[in-house]
Design goal:
mainly alpha, 3-stranded mixed β-sheet, 12 helices, globular
């Protein structure tokens, strides 16, 4: 009727330290991404497709970490880790769905940069408001039937052995290790979904950036090249970090991956990378930093008037 998430029970003396660290990370992710959403909605200079996608990405990151961290904090606090089968299935479905959405949204953001740099004269036509809305909606919706079906397939298996999941959230690899009987079909389904939602978008992003880089190198102005590289470098950094850890988790043959390594990689792409994303996108972005200063000035002016 229930599973036990072992989480970080192998280091009991660090439970409270980990609780404080993850709570701080979670609050930081919520605050930083909320600020980015606020800036992109209120600052006139940020009313462009690039920042529209960035605000959606920030909202996605808030949802993504909320699917894992609050549950993990409760387990660290209570030191129990028990989770019902329904709650486990729900958590896994949301993690997979939001992870798939992130892959697709990163691909959409790469396409936006490709059109902006390689087809600047057609940019306003190709990336109008309706197109942007359709791209975002497709990123959010297209994975729903696939991930619900995959979750149903995993939880239709028989779990007749241990109910102890050596992980900090319900994920496919550790759950398959607890299943009885032949799981070959399930493993093939995991690979197929991972190829569709991880590898295909990643290859399209690489293709887009290949075109972008060749176009940038043809620019005669050194200032123009530097500006073009700066607008793309943040997104490319996030792509490499997220896709690198996610692809190793879901595409690497499972016998060659230890449970500890799987847990560490999951920690990277579900918690640490979302914590780094606001820093990566803001520190290297002059428009965001300028909007942040403008917002700070407005708040200070209002506080003085009060």
């Amino acid at each position: 009727m229930e599973f036990i998430l072992l989480g970080f029970s192998d280091v009991p003396h660090l439970q409270w330290i980990l609780f404080m660290i993850f709570l701080f990370i979670y609050l930081t992710i919520l605050m930083c991404n909320s600020i980015i959403i606020l800036l992109t909605k209120t600052d006139p200079a940020l009313q462009t497709p690039m920042y529209f996608f960035l605000s959606n990405f920030s909202f996605l990151e808030i949802c993504y970490v909320t699917a894992t961290i609050p549950r993990m904090l409760v387990d660290l606090y209570t030191r129990k880790g028990s989770i019902s089968v329904l709650a486990c299935a729900t958590q896994m479905c949301f993690v997979l769905l939001l992870g798939g959405t992130e892959c697709l949204l990163l691909m959409v953001m790469a396409y936006d940069r490709y059109v902006a740099i390689c087809k600047p004269l057609q940019y306003s036509l190709l990336m109008n408001y309706n197109v942007c809305m359709q791209l975002v909606a497709a990123s959010w919706i297209s994975g729903i039937p696939v991930e619900i079906g995959q979750t149903y397939q995993i939880f239709s298996l028989h779990f007749c052995g241990s109910n102890r999941i050596n992980h900090f959230f319900c994920d496919i690899p550790p759950l398959l290790k607890l299943a009885c009987g032949d799981t070959f079909v399930n493993k093939i389904a995991v690979y197929v979904v991972a190829v569709v939602f991880v590898m295909v978008p990643f290859l399209l992003i690489i293709f887009s950036y290949g075109k972008i880089i060749s176009n940038i190198l043809r620019l005669s102005s050194a200032k123009g090249r530097a500006k073009a590289f700066s607008t793309c470098s943040s997104h490319l950094t996030v792509v490499v970090l997220f896709y690198g850890t996610a692809s190793v988790t879901y595409l690497q043959p499972k016998p060659s991956q230890s449970e500890g390594m799987g847990k560490l990689l999951s920690l990277f792409y579900t918690i640490l990378i979302p914590a780094l994303n606001p820093i990566i996108y803001t520190l290297r972005n002059k428009d965001i930093m300028m909007a942040l200063r403008n917002l700070e000035t407005k708040l200070l002016t209002r506080s003085k008037n009060l």
